[in-house]
Amino acid sequence: MTDLNTDLNLKLHMRQCIQKVATGPEYSKDLNYTDAYHAMRHILSGEADPVQVAVFFIGLRMKRETEEENRGILQAIIDSAVIQTANVDEVLDISDPYDGYARGVPASSFMPAVLATMGVPAVLHGLEQVGPKFGATHHKVLKAAGLNVNLTPAEALAQLEKIGWTYIDQSQFAPRLHDLIPIRQRMIKRQVLTTVETLVGPIRGKRATHCIGGYVHKAYPAIYAALARQSGFDSAMFVRGMEGGIIPSLQQSGKLFYYYEKGEEQQRDLSPEDIGVTAEVRSIPLPEDLPPAPMIGDEIATLVDSDALAAAAAKMGIAALGGEKGLMYNSLVYSASIALAHLGRYGSVQEAADAVRATLDSGKALETLRAAV
User: Fold this and answer.
1) How far apart are CA 340 and CA 351, in angstroms?
2) Alpha helices, DSSP H only, in the chain?
3) Strand pairing partners for 228?
4) For 20-52, what is each residue's pLDDT tens digit?
5) What tens digit of pLDDT does each residue of 188-243 get?
């Protein structure tokens, strides 16, 4: 590729990258890490032509992104973002899909409060709304619960250090990436940013930073593990969760992929019955009285109104943190116990689940949530 010392050469580099990745099914070529990195840095600069940006992302998607391309794009985002180190030894980063939930009620918005109450500093991040799903996001759920979802990076860091958990919005820690939302909405389909943006890790621990994420398709644990190592997560775990999130099915067994000390990923089985959870449904079903979704641009990406779904999730989440039994309660028990066992805080998932139940029943997790108000 060309020398990248001038704006003109950056534009030429972008053209060359597009010529490689968008030449049809037979002749498209993969980018190396460096080329993907510089193409993404050019996009994040705000100087790239919007049409070229869309063609670049669609070209990558059509030929399928490689590990080097994913890692290069992620590193470019990290290098343009606000990454902070908290004055705590360890941090658990909760990497849920940024486009939210649309087929069930999200529970993971309330997991940080549970973990913080149990001595594990936790960071949740996301944004208000993005495609392709345009679902109920953590931003919307926590806002419906009465929390400030627009903390500055400094405020989010202070909250984590004070009460053990925080939410930080992409608009605050990665504003250049957030500026791409309009063009992402116009592109309609999922692209590489949907995959990599959850692994930025905006707040790190002094000694170690861990990650928990979710996946749906079988190919993605290895993809996410490579991205987590690139981001610098010391350990990571990826749950086959509902809608690609971190809450496993409450009805059937599943898989957990994980690694320690940035090593190779390993696999083990999960079963809700192992922690005494039995359910007739896989996740918390949508309330029947939700209004239909409004038009988003020129399409409806989800069937129900995401703000109304977020409000329903907030009500259920607050009740579960206060000890109310039900599917929300069980979702928090299951996911939090997986994380706690992975971190070695308990000898087994079963022991961790018992401790999570005791925490929820005490009402202390609700106090931890409200401490952020």
Assistant:
1) 10
2) 7-21, 24-27, 33-44, 50-63, 67-80, 111-117, 138-144, 153-163, 170-173, 175-178, 181-187, 192-196, 220-231, 306-321, 327-342, 349-362, 364-370
3) none
4) 998 877 788 999 999 999 999 999 999 999 999
5) 788 999 999 999 999 999 999 999 999 998 899 999 999 999 999 999 999 999 99
